[in-house]
Design goal:
The chain has a three-stranded antiparallel sheet with strand order 3-4-5. A two-stranded antiparallel ribbon has the order 1-2. The longest helix has 7 residues, at 6-12. It has helices at 6-12, 31-37, 49-52, 58-64, and strands at residues 18-20, 26-29, 54-55, 69-77, 83-90. The chain is an alpha+beta fold. The chain contains four helices and five strands, in the order H-E-E-H-H-E-H-E-E. It is 26% helix and 27% strand.
Length: 98
């Protein structure tokens, strides 16, 4: 039996998942993350993370610096001004170019 492609697995996750590049821009986000942020699912890639949700960026910055972060609660302000609490898990990913 063939394994499903990684994109299908990510898209079907009920939890929000976002991949942020070293430049702080969204490389990929699933529909659950778009719903959490209160933004349309399409067109998120390339957007600075800080434009989508204003929050304590510490967990993401820590992951970009090479640290694995688990269970950090942050208050997120959505683009429409509503505020939510989110639990953040973040880890650095190393690609072929670092």
């Amino acid at each position: 039996m063939a394994e499903p492609p990684a994109e299908l697995i990510v898209a079907s996750l009920p939890e929000g998942l976002v991949v942020v590049g070293s430049d702080g821009r969204v490389a990929q986000a699933n529909a659950a993350m778009a719903q959490l942020w209160g933004v349309p699912a399409g067109g998120i890639a390339g957007t600075p993370l800080t434009d989508l949700a204003r929050a304590d960026a510490d967990p993401v910055q820590r992951a970009l610096a090479g640290e694995t972060v688990q269970g950090v609660l942050v208050e997120v302000e959505r683009p429409d001004g509503t505020r939510i609490w989110a639990e953040v898990n973040a880890a650095p990913l190393e690609g072929g170019s670092g």
